[in-house]
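Work Package 3 (structural annotation) set out to generate three-dimensional models for the target panel prioritized at the project kickoff. During this period the team completed the workflow that converts sequence records into discrete structure tokens, so that structures can be stored uniformly alongside our sequence database. As a representative example, we reproduce one entry of 418 residues exactly as it appears in the project archive.
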Amino acid sequence: MKARSLRRDLALGLGAGLTVLWIVAMLGATLIVREELDEVYDSLMEETTDRLLPFMAMQGTGDFPSRAEALLTWALRDADGVRYSEEADPADFAVGAPEGFSTIGDQRHFVRISGGTALDIASPLQERREALLGVMTALILPALALLPLCLLGIKWFTNRRLRPVAALSAEVAGRSPGDLRALSTPDLPTEVGPVRDEMNRLMADLSETLEAEKAFSANAAHELRTPIAATLAHVQLLRDASNGPLRERAEKAETELKRVVRLAEKLLQLARAEHAKNVAPPVDVAPILRLVAADFGLTADVPDAPVPLRIDPDAFAILARNLIENAATHGTDPSVRLHVDGTLHVANDGAVVPSAALNHLTRRFERAGSRTAGSGLGLAIVAAIAEKAGLKMALRSPREGSDQGFEAVILSNLAQYS
């Protein structure tokens, strides 16, 4: 389901609400203006009738203008018959209107009867509609011109008021999974501030839990080294002093104790990787890689020029050692190659690792091959160091340019991998 935008919903909701209210206001104004215009026109008709009828009854109609008012026509009914104003249409007076106000066809009539004389004043409704249209045009056009400005004002206001919320969202989105520092977005609205505070409390609790877990792993591994080393020494003495089946058992115990020693060392490395700093100054990793590869009897393909990476030197040495050890343990013909852009390739020959298994190799204690070979922590340590340093790790099998083997690629922030 596509996420909804609070800013967009507020702007659209307020804009639509304002538009609807504006339309309702204009409709209400139209009704009120029409009623007021009807009252003005009706009042004009009544006043005109009351002013003309006495003079017409006494003097006749010869001296009166052809129209009673600019927008009115009349018909006079008396004993001499029916007389009309010059511009009057007799058809408008064909139906005798009752005394008072009435509407017949498209004409509004007012009839006053006095002494056997009836004066019928007619006003065209079209004139009223044109007047109403003129008044409403004068009201609506400025409002229409201001409506877009109001909508832009709503958009600007919602953007401004939601700017702290957007800043909080950007701060959360910019955090790496391992960054549990407290959120510090200032000036949050009272509705959003508690969300930030609760998130900070949650991250503080999670940070304490993770720190306790890391400390336990590091301390346990460190404390195990001395008794394991002492036990290994006793087993080696027992091996040297024994013969036959007892010697074979001592040799197996020695092998397993050495595995425990390596596991303790890996746990210490994992603890160091998880405690490593997120940001480090650039360091030339080429000589470090040469030394680590030489420990395994390998010659690394390293550029002559410096290869700077933002990573702690010890952390890079641990990363390179685990990659090379993994390649040597789980395959043959390991190779190490470093590009000038900081991309590191460590590969070997051997059976192809299924693609489904590649996604799980960076989990702790995950092995793709023999369950007894390696500790299952090497690639997990590499992944932890790479994440802390802002590097990316990609695993592929078969290796590049071959139909077999395995390859791990570490990319700097500037490198691309496809």
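Residues 6-159 form one domain.
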